[in-house]
Design brief:
254 residues; membrane; 0% strand; globular; single chain
């Protein structure tokens, strides 16, 4: 009886101890829904789509767009995490480098919340403004690209985070905060380079409102990162490799 209670206590503590060095890292969280092969196929498809988006932005829009637009920071981070997650899963989490797993987990923590900010801001604030500019410039062919840029990365990241065994460290909100501040400097540099604001809410015209908007964006991204880590990702169930095999076998028998 006591051994049963001890084993239950260990299982209850397991999620808190879970980290990127666990052998279950990036294994399927819901193997009955998506098994390991299916999850890796999904990661591969997302990697290809994100890379195509990266290339099209580089060719159709401008190479500098990769640096000065928050959207492309998100797309690049999503691309890297999709590729790294696929690599780690195929190689075996116990065989992959600890540094690579740590980098992948940090990027996942960063891009999961950042893509939410990027996608929400685009579809609620920027969509009409961006489409109007595209039509005025006669570049209607890039409209599907804009839609893809602001939807595919979030889809890819959500699939990787929700369907994979991962746990985030809420204390890493500092990484998102620093990255967001660095982006503000990059966006300011982009405005100086092209001679006009890249976002209507970040005109960098010396006004109090412009700096306030920048501070608000940094704070929102940082707080959202903490909340997503602590109250969303870390509340999702974990599936151990042993339980995953049992679940898969049970589903095959049924």
């Amino acid at each position: 009886m006591s051994s049963t209670k001890e084993s239950q206590a260990i299982e209850n503590k397991e999620p808190a101890k879970f980290n990127y060095n666990s052998v279950d890292y990036l294994e399927p969280r819901f193997p009955r829904l998506v098994n390991k092969k299916g999850l890796n196929i999904l990661r591969a498809i997302c990697s290809v789509l994100l890379f195509i988006i990266w290339i099209l932005v580089f060719v159709w829009i401008h190479p500098i767009a990769q640096i000065v637009f928050m959207t492309m920071w998100g797309n690049s981070a999503a691309l890297i995490t999709s590729i790294l997650s696929l690599y780690i899963s195929l190689k075996g989490t116990d065989n992959a480098s600890s540094k690579i797993k740590k980098l992948n987990n940090l990027l996942l923590e960063y891009v999961f919340s950042m893509e939410m900010v990027i996608t929400i801001v685009f579809w609620t604030v920027l969509y009409d403004w961006v489409i109007a500019i595209i039509k005025a410039e006669g570049n209607e062919r890039t409209i599907p690209l804009q839609i893809a840029i602001h939807s595919v990365p979030l889809f890819a990241v959500c699939c990787n985070v929700i369907l994979s065994n991962v746990r985030f460290n809420p204390g890493n909100w500092k990484v998102t905060c620093v990255a967001s501040i660095i982006f503000m400097f990059a966006n300011y540099g982009g405005k100086q380079l092209v001679g006009q604001p890249l976002y209507p809410f970040l005109p960098w015209d010396g006004s109090f409102r412009a700096y306030l908007n920048a501070v608000i964006l940094v704070l929102v991204a940082t707080v959202l990162n903490y909340l997503c880590s602590k109250f969303i990702v870390n509340k999702l169930p974990l599936m151990s490799a042993k339980h995953a095999k049992e679940s898969l076998l049970e589903s095959q028998l049924n």
